[in-house]
Amino acid sequence: MAGTTTEIPQALAMQTLDAARPLLEKLPFPALWIGEDYSLRWANAATPLQRPQGKCHECLHGYDAPCDSQGQGPCRSLRAAAQGQTCEFVHAHRVDGGLELFKVVALPMTEGVLEFHIPIDESFSRDALTGLLNRPAIEQVTRQGIRLMRRLRQQCAVAILDLDRFKRINDGFGHAAGDAYLRAVGEVLRRETRSTDLVGRWGGEEFLIFMPGCDRRGAGIKVQRLLAALRELRVEFHGSDIRTTTSAGIWTGHPRTTFERIYEGADAALYQAKAEGRDRLCFAREHLPPPQAGAQDHRFQAGQFA
């Protein structure tokens, strides 16, 4: 979800904020004034704070550097404010151990920026067919999650799942049958993943899962179980029993690189799983220890994680 910026006549003056403060206090969602130095100058009662004073990224998220830049420059709100622009973008907050999407509307002030953090209506972030996060939403929260794991020095995993030979379902039974199968897949993925895992439909018959705090062994166990559950899935459609298998590629490790590199690693592992016969998972090679002679550590072996 790309952010947008819009020119406004002038930055909000301090007296304007003072006059509006009684109304801002009554808003059911967070409203906060952030100074040019990232200091949290004021926040309404709806703003969940991890600490009462300090930098905005410290008070709101427990981060030791600005959310958007990893310390490499102003965040997008302050960049837009410095140019006299209002800015809108999607941000992920840590809520009850997980991540929740908010739409941030940032208005420039004479001293910093006024932000509104509005919870996103799920109808805008959910895939209409499967009920999972849609592609913009899963990409945004995965990017935010990777940054969070990097700051916390925690491992994480990103898995890409792709239904094998799904085109045969559409060609043999029609697109309505394919849609019915995708809906059933969405139900399986929601049921079989943790509440802290983020699951989205990446496109077509491909799905992306972000697993915070998950190491290689844990990711292997979870994805193995998902593949087993999908292997057992049967969808009855007009008297026909529809089924298929699933392949998966997984990146795991401490996220010292970008979302793009992590996705490329998982995607390459998915192609490896397809090339080796489908209905299996493979790990991204570049994040494995050097293989022993004759070993094939990138490949999932039956019982490896039991």
UniProtKB/TrEMBL annotation:
> Which cofactor does the UniProt annotation name?
Mg(2+)
In what residue span(s) does the GGDEF domain sit? 154-286
**Family annotation (InterPro entries):** Diguanylate_Cyclase, GGDEF_dom, Nucleotide_cyclase, Rev_trsase/Diguanyl_cyclase
Name any one GO molecular function.
diguanylate cyclase activity
Query: What is catalyzed by this enzyme?
Result: 2 GTP = 3',3'-c-di-GMP + 2 diphosphate
What's a single GO CC term here? plasma membrane
Q: Which GO terms describe its biological process?
A: cell adhesion involved in single-species biofilm formation; negative regulation of bacterial-type flagellum-dependent cell motility
| EC numbers on record | 2.7.7.65
Q: Which NCBIfam families match?
A: GGDEF
Name of the molecule in the record? diguanylate cyclase
Which organism does this sequence originate in?
Solimonas fluminis
